Amino acid sequence: MSTLFDRLKEVSSPTIGLGCMNLSHGYGTPVPEPEALRTLDAAFDMGYRHFDTATLYGATANERLLGRGLQGKRDQLLLASKCGMAIDPQLGKKVIDGRPETLRRQCEASLQRLRTDHLDLYYLHRLDRQVPIEESVGALGRLVQEGKIRAVGLSEVSATTLRRANAEHPIAAVQSEYALWTRNPEIALLEACRASDIPLVAFSPLGRGFLAGAIEDTQRLEASDMRHNMPRFSADNLPRNLSLLADFTAVSEELGVTPSQLALAWVKAQGDDILPIPGSRSSAHMRENLAAEDIRLAPETVARLNAMMTPEQVAGGRYSEAQQADIDTEEFASSETSTS
Prior knowledge:
Layout: H1 4-10, E1 18-19, H2 33-46, E2 50-52, H3 61-69, E3 78-83, E4 85-88, E5 93-96, H4 100-114, E6 121-124, H5 133-145, E7 152-155, H6 159-168, E8 171-177, H7 189-195, E9 200-203, H8 237-255, H9 259-269, E10 274-277, H10 283-290, H11 299-306, H12 321-324
Parallel strand pairs: 1-2, 2-3, 3-6, 6-7, 7-8, 8-9, 9-10
Antiparallel strand pairs: 4-5
Helix pairs in contact: 2-3, 2-10, 3-4, 4-5, 5-6, 6-7
């Protein structure tokens, strides 16, 4: 089985990939399809080759968008999607379901929407606590045997779950939130990944826009923006967190890079086995992010950044209590998960 890095080399991919969720999900009104298709086309032309989507995003709309937008380019890229978490059309809400029959059904539907006969990487989007991880991963392993997917990944899992899963079937990548102000993988997951030579794919490396300096006041966000329900962006916590941003921005100015580029360079400096997948709704921002591919930070700069926005300094947890209940990732003891 080819490794994730083997496939990235095959398609001449930079280490920075593209999280496509933002175009259809999570951050307010979806980007109109004609504009989103132009943006995907521009992303490919500027060099992106690792595209990440999921059944959940836009209630399958994001997969359909990529199916259209990447048509004719399939052999030139690494295409990743996710299963096990979807919007139930009857209930109208998110449902986590890791049963083998569900994962198979979702995979086959994803292949149709993405207009391809296989996925390079297919993640279990969330651990279903009602289904042993071995059963879910075993089902994905059978999809590998059938050629419908090339490799199995996991998203938002703990080190313990990763080890159990990897014993059932080789895991090619683990996706987890990792950014200067979100260092949860450092608790145990990174060590577990490295013990088995498993790359970490870092989502939200720009802190959901915070590290880019794009969130100064949540009142400017659309009512449907998911950040309204995230504790770090609450009326109490956001001002405290913004006070931490000045030193970070000062470093970016000293280095002559943008805050977004510095945030990505920091993630990349944590190891060659870490692949950031920033998302964006703008081709200009995508180009800015991709330019971070060639930025190398001096050890003293990394050490300086490491001392900023530590878990003890950041106000609020990643998720609300309800959201936190859906993930398996280790949390810092001091993390706050309330919405206050």
